[in-house]
Request: fold
Amino acid sequence: MSFVIAIDGPAASGKGTLARRLAAHYGLPHLDTGLLYRATACALIEEGLPLDDVEAAVEAARGLSLTDFDEARLRSREMGEGASLVGAMPPVRAALIDLQRGFAARPEGAVLDGRDIGTVICPDATVKIFVTASAETRAQRRALELAARGEEVDFSAILEDVRKRDARDSERSAAPLKAAADAVTLDTSELDREQAFAAALAIAARGRRAR
Reply:
């Protein structure tokens, strides 16, 4: 059986960093599924189309290539907001399911992070981790990330964005953000990067042995 690690959690919880490090540790391919939604939003924005155009968003999602992402562009605050909007559209999520499941079906396994990996995309994943942190901690992390890229930082606005995204992601009808029933929750609010990775690695090791 392949070794699949599903990591879910809200924005700026640290799930992406943990997913990349776990993938490197185990020598597995990694997919940040949030980039799929950011890329969909980016395609609409670049075409001058509204982010609530469901038909155009579905077409953009179906045309995505996993090897054609400009991560620097997609990591912007604007794309994060856009991703949350298009990600709330059931047809867009449906259009991206096969792409994500195909990535996870590699013989050796894979690490995927997002918001519905353990609940929808890979319900039979070997390991499921739900990474979280307080809204204030996540807003501070996002502010530091944006500042490092030279973007203007307004902490109050970022915190408001974090809370709005949490509400939108958790309350949407299609694949809402929530921990899978068999996921292990990891709160990184008081952990530095090394402590968080050590905790995630311990969870992954336990899950792998249990299989």
